[in-house]
Amino acid sequence: MRRIFTNKIFILVVVVVLLLALAAVSYSELSGVNIISNIISVPAAPLQRAYAFVTGKVGDFFGYFEDVKKLKDENEQLSQRISELEQQLLDIDRLTKENEELRAALNFKDQYEEYNFLGASIIAKDPGNWFDVFTVNRGINDGIENNSPVITAYGLVGRVSKTDLMTSRVVSIIDMDSTVSARLSKSRDLIVIRGDVELRAKGLCRADYIPPNTDIMPGDTVETSGMGGLYPKGIIIGKVVKVVKNEGQYDSYAIIQPMVDFKRLEDVIILTKKES
Amino acid sequence: MRYRILTAIALIWTAAFLQSTVLEHLEVFSIRPNLLLVLMVVISLLRPTSESAGMSLALGLTMDMLMGKTLGWYALLFFLVSIPISLINQKLYREKLLVLLSFGFVSTVVIETVFFLIMFLFKGYEYLPFIFTTVVLPEALLNSILILPLFKPIAGVYIKLDKVDRRRNRIAS
Asked: Is the ipTM of this complex over 0.90?
């Protein structure tokens, strides 16, 4: 009996079987076995945070000299823009009041009122070349849960895919494993946005299942549909940059430029559900 | 034994930290070298089968944890690739440039191709030629370059550990 347990082939088979079992068990993002990731993430978090801080400061320092030239030009353009915007602001004030009155009259529920907004910084990027996953400095201790939507002021970033004690992993909308139920802002047609192998490196994603009669063209804005219960309705995802029409009924697809620049993303907002 | 385990933990942990932070700045055309994979190849070239298999398992599991997806696939691939390398490492001129380059290159191609097949092929992606030329081959090239400066320092660490072992054995006997 002892000879069996010291047999190298037996040990090899046992290790392989155990690893396959681990892969099967941890396949679900909600699996309890994923808690072992804390072995790496908890001690690494303070160092990753420190590294992100230092590289940010170094980048700011060198960026400062470059920015001075740009700022002069921008200043002139912005002065002109301010006068235009002041005019628009007057219109917006009027429209906001009208909107509030109409919403109150129709008893609309604010889509974000059930969420808390929690700021987070990216402290580490995906270590490999396959996924677009990054680590943020908020975890279970901050009340983050799996599948919490992640946004910026510009639009949708993705969702929390795994939570550790002090950090969380966020899977971006350009990741190959990501799927978002979306709607075209103009025509209100439903589409599905997903990450794509070829487009991922360019920071783009793809809209699939576009019915033949859909009114879609480059420049159209895409937003979350609110279906599926993962993302609140109306978060801007991006703009259509190209539409590829094919013969089949659902063969047409579009290329979407997300509003968020994933290459330069540093800070995000995580939406956590308010406790009722 | 204890200092060997501590050294292994320090090596793995340092590699994990560098992989998730510093190596982001070494990306070439959005492709980043895989320090943990390179470390696995180096250790498999230097150490006997049982030791390198154990280290490869730990390195693979660390890579899985860093990825934040399914646990176990990199651990399995690192483990299985390390065994044949460690079985033949005594017969190789391990310090030779060509040996290091080719083992770094081939191991990366095997591991990343199989990883892609496991993770994506059954999900309906059929981009293997595209993935092979834009991700696997560039990463294999980067890894085979990274293995060159890494081999000697890691070999140095293990030579020191062996010296400490010999000294302790002499004292004990």
From this structure: no
